[in-house]
Write a structure and sequence with these properties.
Distance between the termini of chain A: 58 Å
CATH class of chain A: Alpha Beta
CATH superfamily of chain A: Phosphoribosyl-AMP cyclohydrolase
Cofactor (chains A, B): Mg(2+); Zn(2+)
Strand order of the largest sheet of chain A: 2-1-6-5
GO cellular component, one term (chains A, B): cytoplasm
Subcellular location (chains A, B): Cytoplasm
Number of domains of chain A: 1
Oligomer: homodimer
EC number (chains A, B): 3.5.4.19
Number of helices of chain A: 3
Strand content of chain A: 25-35%
Enzyme class (chains A, B): hydrolase
Chain lengths: 143, 143
Amino acid sequence: MSASSHTHNHDPEEGLTFQPKFDASGLVTCVATDAASGDVLMVAHMNDEALRKTIASGEAWYYSRSRKALWRKGESSGHVQRVIEMRMDCDQDAVWIRVEQTGAACHTGRRSCFYRAVIGEGGEAKLTFIDADKVFDPAKVYR
Amino acid sequence: MSASSHTHNHDPEEGLTFQPKFDASGLVTCVATDAASGDVLMVAHMNDEALRKTIASGEAWYYSRSRKALWRKGESSGHVQRVIEMRMDCDQDAVWIRVEQTGAACHTGRRSCFYRAVIGEGGEAKLTFIDADKVFDPAKVYR
């Protein structure tokens, strides 16, 4: 491969051009993990503006599908996410951010949204609480 | 809360009833992380059947949106994912599995699909390779 073909490699998988592949709603999936523990904190979505604001500010911005609005993580709760590293996946439709989470990521008050494990029992699946202690009281934080 | 109301708590966020919230295409998002390193390996989707097969077999099954088909991870490559733990998020539209990954998760031959970091430079974003060594040669594995 010549230097010039490498420079101009726009292959989404092998190139170095940032070209997010937004879905029909204009979104990519974003996984936020705790930079210290490696735990998955939440899965949410970013539109083009949320991606750009996250990259520019170093703090996580998302797009809320239910509220149909751009959303700075922690704007109501103060529980911001400082981005330590952002990565893009092979086909550029998913983003992984490693963050320093202030307080808790989940609106229920837990550190992570993934506070229940799935247990299979005799063909049936059920949930069990795990790491489910509340870091804050949602009734006091969101009013 | 009485014992009986607790048993019958079907609140998706606070209950223990497994009730995945599938999107319009019948899918939930699944994040697979490496149980050993905590790295995010891939983001993919599961339909009801993929979820049930994953829970029943202890190996990851997905639904491929591009191929419109159920897909046992590793069925072509041998690079299966043994599920150590499965968790569900607050509103039950995303699943997190911690897995033991045989070989590599990414079809490009890398251990993880997230082999490029996003770097912001003067308002522009670009990618840079990170942990991008290939574990296998896709041309030899997929024929």
